[in-house]
Design goal:
Length: 175
């Protein structure tokens, strides 16, 4: 239901496509173009294998019916991707696992516009809020989420390859 609201609010200037094996190369190109993000977070540079794993990656106690992994296109250009889980961690919450905008579209207000449409879509679908997590070292991403009105609820430490990273759990009400 959220996806239908999102498509309706987005309008006809963009197409929304489920990410599958067929468009995985577009997703990979978008991810590889985001060099700042991958220089900050503790994950390897994306590859077709890592993108393929994202197709089925789920948090605990969820299933594929809750997952939506979509690409937004303007013409033939993959300009953004969204990966979200409905009704997680509770029935009335949407968990936004990934939002990434192609760098060619940065600093134009498009990222904010897309997330505001996503928030309105969640509200229209009767979700009370949106959760996400942002690595503290991703200062640009953290500033983006704060600007949109997400608030940090708590910080936790995530160990990756023996290095500790601060992960900020954020929330935005849809009410």
């Amino acid at each position: 239901m959220l996806l239908n609201h999102f498509k309706d609010l987005l309008g006809q200037n963009y197409s929304v496509v489920k990410i599958t094996e067929d468009n995985l190369n577009d997703v990979l190109k978008l991810m590889q173009a985001n060099t700042y993000y991958y220089s900050q977070i503790p994950f390897p540079t994306p590859s077709l294998d890592t993108c393929r794993k994202d197709l089925t990656a789920l948090p605990p106690n969820t299933d594929m019916k809750q997952k939506n992994y979509i690409a937004l296109y303007k013409g033939h250009d993959c300009m953004a991707i969204l990966d979200y889980i409905e009704s997680y961690p509770s029935k009335d919450i949407v968990y936004l696992g990934l939002f990434m905008l192609h760098p060619d579209y940065h600093h134009q207000g498009l990222g904010e516009k897309l997330i505001h449409i996503f928030i309105e879509s969640a509200k229209a679908s009767h979700f009370s809020g949106i959760n996400l997590a942002c690595y503290e070292v991703n200062t640009i991403g953290y500033a983006f989420w704060k600007k949109i009105g997400f608030v940090t609820e708590k910080a936790c430490i995530r160990q990756i390859d023996g290095v500790s990273y601060v992960l900020l759990e954020m929330y935005k009400s849809c009410l």
